Amino acid sequence: MADETNENLTSHMDLLRFATAGSVDDGKSTLIGRLLLDSKSIFEDQLEAVETTSKGKGYDYTDLALLTDGLRSEREQGITIDVAYRYFATPKRKFIIADTPGHVQYTRNMVTGASTADLGLVLVDARQGLTEQSRRHAVILSLLRVPHLVLAVNKMDLVDFDEATFTKIHDEFTQFATKLSIPDLQVIPISALAGDNVVNRSENMDWYSGPTLMHHLENVHVASDRDLIDARFPVQYVVRPKSDEFHDYRGYAGQVAGGVLKPGDEVVVLPSGMTSKIAGIDLFDQEISEAYPPMSVTVRLEDDVDVSRGDMIARVKNAPAPSQDIDAMVCWMTTTPLKPRQKLAIKHTTRTARAMVKDIQYRLDVNTLHRDQETKELGVNEIGRVQLRTTVPLLSDPYSRNRTTGSFILIDEATGVTVAAGMILS
Question: Which residue from 108, 134, 194, 258 has the fewest beta carbons nearer than 10 Å?
Fold first, then answer.
């Protein structure tokens, strides 16, 4: 039965979300353009337009960065773009790219794009080597518990495909990564402009024996990254059709945040503590035998218990402990600083409550990992450790165990603006 579950999980996990990060001229736009081109995800007229523009600029090559550079020009004009999403597919897998801005003033945007990523792709320029920004991007991806990280050493063609240059960057980054929480690290030498080791293996770097970037993206195993042990089902909506045909139907719709749910499982509804068994699980108009993250389903229970939006269905012997005291890392996203005693709304899974900032313990310097314990507030784009007290108990897990039940956002009640993203420590 376990093998069957794993097989089903693998067959449904054919989507990889990855976030790209890099400094301004590391070649991120060119790399995304190359992935789109070589996976045949752009139309012929788009390619013709790019080729024509490239010739008009006097280039003797097709400038693939033009496929995505409209976004860059908007950023340079000072227009804040949260994250640019791109979609492409190969016969093996579908991909969503979250193209995140690299500047320090866009830290909050990078947090937004990387928070749901399975993999982080950090680009460095082979001529420049590791920069402060490269390290900062790696730290943020580590804080967000992105389980897979790829360091793409780009522009190898501009250093004559020199193995020693790559080895130096590889060793320096690998040593730096030992200080971080990065379970899986791959370092790949590429030339996005020429296509070396992006989709096709490079003849210019026969000294490199690892996978191409596309091969790694297609084959990296993400099915086991989600928490498949602790059953967590935050209820989004109570389904009670008004029609006579379904007048007896009562289901609870939501997205599975953890574990595997099956009909017959004994469950508890929190915070009430009422117990029941799962009578059935519906996906659209069909009944299914199991549900797992990140499936959106409707769960039916055998007993008519009181369940409403914001409640959580969990296993009887493995339920989250409700708590009103939250210890968390937060990324502050607005120009008005965060201060102790401040009151905000908190949204955690499907539950909304109010929270007060009890204490700011330290501000984290994401370049040096230094903890500034003298700080009295958090400014825009800063990350720090805070203690919150909520008006109602939250049903949470540590972010390190479950990225869905371990995360939350803080909202300014006066304006309705999201002012922080948080990761629960305990």
Answer: 194
Question: Which residues have CB under 8 Å from 36's CB, separation 6+?
Answer: 42, 64, 67, 86, 88
Whose structure tokens read 């897998």? 93
Query: For the whole model, what pTM was predicted?
Result: 0.78
Mean pLDDT in residue range 269-289? 93
Per CATH, 2-219 and 232-315 having the same topology is answered no
**Most confidently modeled range among 18-27, 47-56, 326-335:** 326-335
Task: Read off the pLDDT of residues 387-422 as tens digits, 9 standing for 90 and up.
Answer: 999 999 999 999 989 989 999 999 999 999 889 989
How far is it, in rounded angstroms, from Cα 257 to Cα 19? 21
Phi and psi, residue 408, nearest 5°: -155, 170
Domain boundaries, the chain: 2-219, 232-315, 322-424
Q: Could you list the beta-strand ranges (E) of 302-417.
A: 312-315, 322-332, 343-348, 351-364, 371-372, 383-395, 407-411
Cα distances (Å, whole numbers) of residue 115 to 50, 66, 155, 246, 400: 32, 27, 28, 39, 13
The radius of gyration of the chain's CA atoms, rounded to the nearest angstrom, is 24
What's the pLDDT tens digit per position in 38-76?
766 665 666 666 667 766 666 666 656 655 555 455 444
Most distant pair of Cα atoms in the chain: their distance: 74
**Where is 85: in which H helix or E strand?**
strand 84-89
Helices and strands per DSSP (H, E), number in the chain: 8, 21
* CB distance 99 to 83 below 8 Å: yes
End-to-end CA distance of the chain: 33
Q: What is the CATH number of domain 2-219?
A: 3.40.50.300
Q: What is the rounded CA–CA span in Å between residue 153 and residue 161?
A: 11
Q: What angle do CA 377, 334, 82 make, to 5 degrees?
A: 140
Q: Omega into 189 within 30° of 0, i.e. cis?
A: no
